[in-house]
Amino acid sequence: MWERELLGIDVYYIISWFIIYSFIGWIAESTYMSICNRKLTNRGFMFGPFCPIYGVGALCVYFILRPFSGNIVALYFAGAILATIFEYLIAKLMQVVFGEVWWDYSDKPFNYKNIICLESTLAWGLYTVFMFKFLHEIVNEVIERFSYRRGIQLITIVLAIIMIDMIIHIVREKREFINDRVGTIKEKLRGIRS
Predict the structure, then answer these.
(1) Which of 87, 97, 142, 157 is buried most deeply by CB count within 10 Å?
(2) CA 150 to CA 158: how far, in whole Å?
């Protein structure tokens, strides 16, 4: 399974990238929000130090934008647009699944429905160039520090932890969402009866 290729890359590397970028995303997001809030802030929705949205986002950006990797200007604009579309779609999905979005750009100028904004769009372009020109090479060096066998053991353990953590939190969030909806319906029914 690990040596099978997907889009010309071994599954082993793809899953390793997902884990590492999820961790890097958690560090970046938590650090930024801790500075903004002036207190330690965990920006992941799970217990562990992972933001899977960053892992998925980094993989999408990497695979879709590889053809632009030689042109920094094209890479910047394509990354800004692609990541903004991804952020918008994830927000819409979260609204359907959880009834809320876990970020709010209402205080940012040039925002759209408080879920995307110009500031983030510009930052996504920079992050894309940074990833292609610097970070991805470091991520691959980290992966190469482990033997293939040890790497498989590590990613299997980490993936299991991420999946259990994610399931626990999705079930909890979904339960809270359903309980809120049931409470709203009960209140409306009481209002009708009175």
Answers:
(1) 87
(2) 12
